[in-house]
Known about the structure:
Keywords: Acyltransferase, Transferase. GO terms for molecular function: acyltransferase activity, transferring groups other than amino-acyl groups. InterPro entries: CAT-like_dom_sf, Plant_metabolite_acyltrans. Pfam families: Transferase (PF02458). The protein has 126 residues and is of the alpha+beta class. Helices cover 25% and strands 12% of the residues. It is built from three helices and five strands, in the order E-E-H-H-E-E-E-H. It has helices spanning 20-23, 44-65, 105-109, and strands spanning 2-3, 14-17, 72-74, 83-86, 94-95. It is flat and about 55 Å long. The mean pLDDT is 86.
Amino acid sequence: SKISPPSSDSVTASTLPLTYFDTLWLKFPPSERVFFYQITDLTFDLFNSVILPKLADSLSLTLLHYLPLAGHIMWPADSAKPAIYYFPDQNDGVSFTVAESDADFSHLSGNNGNREAVEFHHLTPQ
């Protein structure tokens, strides 16, 4: 799903020009983060009705303070360099994916040796 900053009359379009050092990273694919949470006695209903909405609301409120992070990179033809543009009326936001796995939690999240990146691929969005 996509999480956007809360709508507000005070939120306007914004632009954040990229620096030379930012543009060096454009040739690399974006990094993908996987966060693990082990919660005992967690039910599907509790997660969907309480925890997930709180995570989504927190992310939405945080994006309000960091609007460029909710935007997208564009390089207009009339510009010398690319920039991050945020347009509230174009449904800008960030992707938010929740995945469930039956993989060994202790193995994937622990400090018990090296793990291959391929072990995490099924947890990241396609």
